[in-house]
Amino acid sequence: MNEAETCRTLVRPKLETAGWEANGDTFYREQIGITAGRIVLPGGKPRRLKKKIPDFLLYFTRDVLLAVVEAKSNIRPAGDGLQQAKDYAQILGLYFAFATNGTKVIEYDYFTHTETERADFPTPTELWQRYLKGMSLAPGYTDALLVPDYHWPDKRPRYFQRVAIERALQAIVGKQQRRCLLTLATGTGKTTVAFQICWKLWSAYWNAKGEPKRRPRILFLADRNKLVDDPKDRDFAPFGDTRLRIQGKAEKGREMYFALYQSLAGADGVPGLYQQYARDYFDLIVIDECHRGSANDEGRWREILDYFEPAYQLGMTATPLREENKDSYLYFGNPLYTYSLKQGIEDGFLAPYRVHRIVTSFDAIGWRPNKGQKDKDKNPIPDRLFQTKDFERVISIEARNKAVAVHLTNFLKRNGRYDKTIVFCADQDHADIMRQELHNLNKDLAPAAVQVGSSYVARVTADEGERGAGFLDDFQDLEKDFPVILTTSQLLTTGVDAPTCRNVVLFRPVNSMTEFKQIIGRGTRCREDKGKLFFNILDYTGSATEKFADPDFDGQPPEVTAEEIDEYGQTVATETTTNPEPDEDFNVPAGILPEQTGGRVKLRVHGGPGWIDTEVTYDLDASGKQLRVGDMPRFTAEEVRDLFADADALRTQWANPEGRKAVLEELDQRAIDLRVLAAEVGEPDADPFDLLCHLAYKSPLLTRKQRADKLRASAAAFLAGFGPPARPVLEALIDKYVEHGIGEFELPDALKVPPLSAFGPPGEIVARFSGPSQLLAAVDALQEKLYAG
């Protein structure tokens, strides 16, 4: 039997005999993808790699997953699938992994780290009791865990969300741990996780004092209205009338409270609103985006957390531990669970990105005023070289802003003028300048936007107030085309769920890795139904390419060939370049500012030439570890050389069917599509082995026909050794390889389709070779000779 037949005829009955039902209270689910399949961009076109799909998942209840089962063909040893099962178990946060060939069962228990061979599967009750014993948690944990998830019609918690929920319940209820932290990358549903935790605790009547039949009072804290209002009105809507937003006065009598830090904290000499609540009033406090100052020893927000010290406190953040957010980790402790940006992209739940490094003439060589030159307000401009770190902080150059606006507009015209785009500017003033420049360049679309009461481009900063919030709501709305572009400075770095945002534009330096990851998170959400499977980062200041050199992104981008483009978009030169070194910390030179108004005054330079000097595009490679230039043949050659020292090493593994399968899977994981590669180099008839060796080691390139002719000449004696019943089958396999490629040697599938199916059903073909083992041995030997040196 093949694997599917083994599952159907042997494994399912074995599970059902043990009490796991196909449909019931304690049940199994078969062939359910736990990941979405990483999105890669071979040839610039997005596609998904294979999902991770365990053969069986064993559930004690609809939402309580206990174990994973990996099955292999009944002719293989039962233990062949054990490592795969263990890998799945670790990903899923499970303590039991099983492998089987339908006859024997191999169990791995992560509580005891014992591997056991057994004749059958444990019953659901047995496995549940072993789980509870191994966890050794307070009884209340079971009550909370067994509360069904709240199920929306269109979504269920993903595997990593389920792990995060269970880890939080284990810590809060099972271990009475009062300070907890979850680290989940932007776009992975922190609010969904927080809601399910609160829902289970609330439904189980858990509370900090252990009082019977009392639901908990929960406070959801954040520092921006959007981060409070959206969860209250959307995710937490199932709580109904128990919800309350605290504003202006200390209202009580509800169970699910929402508040801004700012509305609870006091001002100088004025006691905070939080003091009107008893210190033990809240049972649980959920702190969203807790890295932004909530745990700082000297912050007013910390006063709130200290005051409510008796409450359990759960911090939620998207940023791993770094210098600028270490206070959060010192306060809450190590994360109960971490799901990173890199893992989200690897699993296919987050969109990968292409990085476009664009350099204006001003950023490439700096800008120096003419002798005695004054700005638009007649202020003298100091005679010095101004560089990227100065622009829009000390000096605003009109021509630089125009050049970037023209380039961004042309980019949208090439790729999609309705592609949602966020432009991060230096400050609110700069955001308004870019809004105006982009509007004037795209005014042909203004009438369509006005017709629906909107704008093609809008500024969303603190100054806009409710009007800006309205633009943001429309930008996030999947059914609204306008506005297409938002210009901002700081306001949209976090808390903005914009699933269709395709372009993140950096037009200001970003010095903090925490802030950088938050900004990148504006584009990481996937919307396959809207055709959004990746997004672009357009970097006009070097911030992105510098940050990818950070250890979190595992490696500096390689040396690349760059293009220099004039103001008309024409290539004027090419050169080999590397990413610039990060700018030093910005300091305003003494005496540079002619005056100060409100702490910020910029010199404003009007007129003058400017253009895009350099533009380079990088792709994140399939390992998620580094950036590369989008050049498939060169990238493939580098990856093959990384895997194999020479052509002979590749040949040795390629000639063996199982070895070749491993090579193909590895190439697939590195986003190397052999068909796309063959088309890109103009060699669709090349044997993939020869194509790889040609690119990586400069070996001669053979077509499949040439390799087949070489086989027939060199292996004539081998083929002659088979009698008339068997030899025509091998000859047909060779012909099929010439026409369609190496995949035609796959057995038993090849036996079921023409031309081999013309020899009769699979059983008759096997009989021509006197048995299945002889057939397999003959086909394996044929492939080894096909790739002999």
Automatic annotation (TrEMBL):
GO molecular function: ATP binding; DNA binding; helicase activity; hydrolase activity
Keywords: ATP-binding, Helicase, Hydrolase, Nucleotide-binding
Alphabetized SMART domains for the sequence: DEXDc
BP GO annotations: DNA modification
Annotated Helicase C-terminal domain residues: 407-569
InterPro entries: EcoEI_R_C_dom, Helicase/UvrB_N, Helicase_ATP-bd, Helicase_C-like, Helicase_Restrict-Modif_Enz, P-loop_NTPase
Domain Helicase ATP-binding: start-end pairs: 171-338
Record PROSITE patterns: HELICASE_ATP_BIND_1, HELICASE_CTER
Name by which UniProt lists this protein: Helicase ATP-binding domain-containing protein
Organism of provenance: Gemmata massiliana
